[in-house]
Amino acid sequence: MGYGRLKPDIVTYGAQVKGSNLKGGCRSLSGTSVASPVVAGAVTLIMSGVLKKIDFINPSSMKQALIEGATRLNDNNMFEQGHGKLNILKSIKILSEYQPKVSLSPTHLDMTDDYMFPYNTQSIYYTMQPIILNVTILNGIAVTGRVAEVQWYPYQNENGNLINVSISYSDVLWPWSGWMSLHITVNEYGQNFEGQALGHVSVTVESPSPMNPSEKINSTVSFSIRCKIIPKPPRQKRILWDQFHNLRYPPGYIPRDSLKVKADPLDWRSDHIHTNFKDMYTHLRSSGYYIEVLGEPFTCFNASNYGTLFVVDPEEEYFDEEIGKFREDILDKNLSVIIFADWYNTTVMKHMKFYDQNTRQWWVPDTGGSNIPAINELLESFGIELGDKVLEGYFNFGDRHDMYYNSGTSIVKFPKTNQTVLIERDLVDQGAEILKLPQNGNQKDLPEIDLKSVRTKHKEVILGMTQTQSGNNGRKGGRIVVYGDSNCLDSTHMEKACFWLIDALLEFTMTSYVSGLLKDMNRTPYLEFPGNFSPFF
Question: Do 240 and 292 meet the contact criterion of CB atoms below 8 Å apart?
């Protein structure tokens, strides 16, 4: 189902829960591995209280009782708590009065409700990327069913005709459930409108009767939609976030961006603007920017609508067609791009292998913190290349901003023109330190880094900014910014937030203005890179 799917369904106790130890005694555990058996025990308890309804209890009806009985938490959104906290007594009451039915999870979409983050944070507008919501269809009537009809009903007197709702769904519900995907956009009639638009989606499910399978039962349920619409914002306020090239869920051993994190070397969470980059998202919204999520290749969006394409820590590769369009969008359509990368070093990756007792296999990273070879291929025609050093260390941007470079990379090639800014800082080669350790197959033996001690530092270029030009006629294209570390944006393990830097870089990509702080730190005349690059692209 992917993006926009409501998970978890509910939440319960999952931190420092006491349980038995295989070697005797007790131990405390945390996480979904603990919360799941808590719910399993609750399900058994609930069933024992409604034995009179045992003929109606199945996986779907039990799930309906759990999510409908859950208690909504005040300070968490729908993707953090699902339907809320497990409430055994309320779920028992629901099951004791239960009649077989079809239901939806979530039950509706309301962009005015704070619970429905991120949908509540940003109004929709004409030419915007679709709002995506994936709905689970729960069929408590039978193990199988068929979606007989799905229809969007806009409320004409509530401006529902200004939005288009594209619907796809599973024709067959089995076992006990199915899915419905909604893509919501503003049509051309709403391009100058400001206000709310309402309507609902009607879903009819046909199921065999539990008492007589040859008899069919039709059940209809509605999914209401309330959207906030505004006129299309100016291009200089629109950011397109590249989600397509971030792994949705790690298919293998994807190491963490920060090599200081040793307790669990695998990055199971992936990256998303609404999860680990949520604080940055909130900052950008409060700064007046509109952020749209690109879930398709670069070939599928109109660059003329956006001021800046934001690429952060990508793991996937780029198709040849994407690379060609990327270049065309920058040079001919004045699209600007900001890229935040991370470390990539094949020798360090091999050194990070470990033996997993569960799978009885050696695990070797599939990539580094980000896919630097893919980024270099994307930027090759602009004379930009990132290196394979793994760098870290504290430094200052002027006298105002303390920064920490957390397992980032460096820039080894960049065009030097009168419109280029290059900034270097003294950093430690963290990769070289890791490779000095004995390779014993235990990732937890990475060094404890004493950042306060004296270590050998080298000057490395970490930030590059340039204005492109299209051909020899002097016509300006878009602007390109490259920074070698994304950890200062990532709420999961940031030590020093760099939202001020994002503000300065967006000011450059959106308006061409270079802040005085960055201009004062520019080292372009003094830095030498291999190769000679033309001032034109």
Answer: yes
